[in-house]
Write a structure and sequence with these properties.
453 residues; alpha+beta; six-stranded mixed beta sheet; four-stranded mixed beta sheet; globular
Amino acid sequence: MFAENDMVEFKREPSKGLMKTVVAFANTHGGVIYIGVEDDGAVCGVDDPEATVLAFTNCVRDSIKPDASMVVQCEAIEANGKPVVGVRVERGAKRPYYLSAKGMRPEGVYVRQGAASYMATEAEIREMLKQAEGLYHEDGRSLQQGLSFDYARESFAEHGMELGDAQMRSLGLVDEDGQFTNLGFLLSDQCPSTMKLAAFFGTKRTKFRGREEPEGSLLKQLEGALDFLAKYTDYETKFVDMRRVDCEDFPPDAAREALFNAVVHRDYAMPAANLVSVLDDRLEITSHGGLPCGTTMEEFQMDVSVPRNPKLAAIFYRLGLIEAYGTGIVRMFEAYEGSGVAPEFHITPNVFRVVLPNRNRPPKGTLVQATEHRLEGSSARDASGGADASDELERQEQVVLSMIELDGPMKRRAIQDRTDFSQATLLRILKRLTDKGLVRAEGNTRRRVYTAT
């Protein structure tokens, strides 16, 4: 027979512990249990299949709540000439299902991941409860009702759409009683959910280049985040087929997709801000909520779309801010094709982080070659005979001079944080550049900064 997987389980004989698997299948995507089959797929059969079916059915009824008998079908079948009991479990409509002896808590609620059943997290249980009730956070009534929508109306008008009372009701910003929903709160000028943006020198979060925290409507926050990325994202000029091409550190399509997905799929019931961090070697975008309940890692990699906030996603789609559902991950990978690097995803039950590597930053140890390439591909700099002088520089001097030209004035420590040079080596390089008149040192030893002449 075939092997165990996320929807198939083998058991040599029936046991009460098998109820965990039934609960896990009912809470996730359903599955089939074969009783009378070894873990390796060898068929051993059962002695009395009819009695096994009856006992198993009674155990399901007595051990699982809510009643799972409607989603469990148990019958005697034959495999390799031996009697086997097959149990088909459908995904239930009354999730979360749980072991009645343990109650509706992690010890009693199970979900299926791969070929094993695991205790559900509290976040997964809450998500199942909301879905079972047909209630998403965005559908709940806002605790604050004195809301304004100036920015949202401007955004809709820019796309040729009106945001009047009728539209707000049909889009879900207002409920049937005329009260603002949490979705309305998120798009209002008073939106409480924030986004923290930070750019850092080097590859560690130790020294800020800049930071902002846009407020207001989610639409306004997104515009602020895009402006921030444009401000702190560098590019490299290359020549392709005799044409000059500006290659951004992070593909705009990938960065935009990751940013908008973080907003659409965030769990707004959790009081934590989205985080956007720009570092020399990567862009990190972190949102809270993890994968939507019931979505597996395999399905995520297949680009299966299960929006945590479907009405918010529908509004973003109508405004042209996101593409058709289920294409985001593919688009991110396509944006990196041919660059030698690819997006990374780090997911826990409560946090979702996208890491976009800098496609212009070479692996460690090739900084010199990358800098030379940047100097060759960039437009000529003609300060103090710059192009002629740079040809005479040693490779180490080219690295430092290029960095100061692009990001200066800079302190010695900031330069050292972004290179592999020791303090003594860097001081010698800076002295040579200063002696040649290509760099100017200003200030005393502690506050000294270096500027390209």
